[in-house]
Amino acid sequence: MDLLDIITIPDKTLRKTSEPIERFDDDLQRFLDQMLATMYDAPGIGLAAVQVGVPRRLITIDVAAKESEEDEEREPTRDPIFLINPEIVWRSDEVSTYEEGCLSIPEYYAEVERPAKVRFRYLDREGNQHEREAEGLLATVVQHEVDHLDGKLFIDHISKLKRDMVIKKFTKASKQGTKPAL
Questions:
Q1: Is residue 4 part of a domain?
Q2: DSSP E strands, 38-80
Q3: Out of 9, 68, 75, 130, which residue is the most buried by the measure of CB atoms under 10 Å away?
Q4: Nearest in space to 40 (alpha carbons), one of 9, 7, 63, 70
Q5: What local confidence, expressed as pLDDT, does residue 94 receive?
Q6: Catalytic (active-site) positions
């Protein structure tokens, strides 16, 4: 299976608002499989379609792989979730902080505060509607990836000074054709 290219900042596609999915066909299924393979290869625990240059409301998530990697003796567990046209319908007042990273901002991590729990609605691969509540790492990843669909990045949740520094380094590296030194 062909892997997809993950775009990085300062690519302006990352700031586009993604369009809803209306057709559930073989092309969509193939694309979801490519997204999942690309996410695992990166390696990551979440990937939005806009991160591979396709501004559509599609997300792949697998936090089981991250949670199982802490036990090096075990084979990594896989439990992928496909979110199509997801929307967060409720956020808790309680907050939690996680160190977040992003495949579109490689090798940069920052503490981000978000609601500790969320309830979200989405369609699965077959077009069936679901509503689910999440907390902990899954809640953070869902919020992070839904942000992507709305043209937001996790660095939008940190101080302007830090955000500007990161964008400047990635922009400079992009013009020079190198990786940023963070």
A1: no
A2: 46-48, 58-61
A3: 9
A4: 63
A5: 98
A6: 145
